[in-house]
Amino acid sequence: MTQTINDVDLYPAYQYQGCYRLRGVGMIQRLTSAVFVVVAVASLPGLLQAQVQGPDSLILVKLYRTTDGPSWNNNANWLTGPVSTWEGVMVEENRVTELWLNHNNLKGSIPRVLGYLRDLRILYMSSNKLDGQIPTELGRLANLEVLWLESNRLSGSIPKEIGDLISLEQLLLGSNQLTDEIPEEMGYLQNIYLLSLTDNELSGSVPASLGNLPRITEMHLSRNQLSGVLPIELSNLTSLGHLSFDENNFTGPIPPELGKLTNLERLWINTNGFSGTLPHELTDLTKLRWFAFYATGLCESLDASFQAWLQNVHLVQSTGCTNVASEDLADVPLEYALEQNYPNPFNSVTTISYSIAETGRVELKAYNILGELVETMENRVLSSGMYWSSFDASGLTAGIYFYTLSVGDLSWTRKMVVVR
Fold first, then answer.
1. How far apart are CA 200 and CA 218, in angstroms?
2. By the number of CB atoms within 10 A of the CB, which of 10, 198, 240, 348 ranks highest?
3. Lowest mean pLDDT segment, chosen from 4-13, 64-73, 161-170, 377-386
4. Integer Cα distance of 15 and 381 in angstroms
5. What is the pTM of this model?
């Protein structure tokens, strides 16, 4: 079987044996056990200087053509110079290891052959116009550590093959149109510490297997159509610092076992069908700073020690045992707030949380100490609610940076520190 990359027939077993036929333009031959070069490829300019092994360069050509490369915001050197000079492409030891293509106006579907970039560690393709389904072939990327596909137009199910990404540390699929249930296989992601599936159309219950993620520090499942009760297995996630299930269809009581999450700083469970009294075991969450449970059937315990604990937590709920229904949200108004990023200081990725009181255009931007813009994390109309954005400083030098939240004529700024 062969897979066609436009004018190229690519054999999946490329890393071990054989050669590759380019119809009408030449052949890629194996010169050593691992090094391949293009003998004659007149129709693919730049590949003669690619300086990468195997068909990595051909796969990138397929990506460029499939996602309307000529209309990208930045396509510097693509198809014209050595692959190592192509904008957003990182090459190490003659293999493509990183693709940085966020905010770049990519259109169309994600080509399946990306799953054959066997040394790829980082794949950033957020905030584009990608549509179609997430290719199951991405599950072949055994070395992948970062997969960001948020803020696109992706649809269909999350492929179960994502669970094969044994090296994955960050998975961001939020703000798409993904449907169906969260696959059980995601419980195999033993190295993951950041998981975001927010703002999709996911349904069904949360699989108990998500309680098998020992390193996870942030889990975001907000604004979906998830239902059922929260699995008690989530209490195994003792490294969690931020857990959000808000704006779903969950029911039943809050499991007392959540009191074992003693590193939790933010817990958002508002706007659900939860009922009963908040368990006293939550008082063991001594690090909790932001606890939102409005628009549920949950009641506060009137126990003195529970009430004393609540005094040390930022709450978005009325006091006592008064339930707050969705239609009564006007009685518990949100305020504009920009939280300190977490963690801080940080080495690579941090999370910025903020709340919006009224519907309006929201901008969240990061600046260096000279006041120069380094990234726009948010620029769209948001309704009243609580939100968060991830900021990746992997490509920045150590030092002090600032992030600013702007809504109309209002703005708030906080400082964050990048360390190396």
1. 17
2. 240
3. 4-13
4. 47
5. 0.74
Q: Which two structure tokens, joined as six digits, stand for 362?
A: 């929201």
Q: CB within 8 A of 97, min separation 6: which ones?
A: 90, 91, 119, 120, 121, 122
Alpha carbon separation from 18 to 11, 25, 29, 141, 200 (Å, rounded): 8, 18, 8, 21, 43
Residue 24 has pLDDT above 70, yes or no: no
CA 394 – CA 347 distance, rounded (Å): 7
Question: Dihedral (C-alpha) 223, 228, 233, 237: value to the nearest 10 degrees?
Answer: 10
CA distances from 205 to 180, 182, 184, 209, 249 (A): 10, 8, 10, 11, 10
Q: Cα(257)–Cα(270) distance, rounded to whole angstroms?
A: 18
Which tokens sit at 188?
Answer: 């195999």
Q: Residue 315: which pLDDT band, with cuts at 50, 70 and 90?
A: low
pLDDT of residue 21: 33
